[in-house]
Amino acid sequence: MSIVVKIKSLPHGAGLQLPAYHSNQAAGADLQAGVPQGAPLSLAPGAFTLVPTGFAMALPAGYEAQIRPRSGLAFKHGVTVLNAPGTIDADYRGEVKVLLINHGPQSFDITRGMRVAQMVIAPVTTAQFSSVTELDESDRGTGGFGSTGT
Question: How many structural domains are present in the chain?
Answer without folding.
Answer: 1
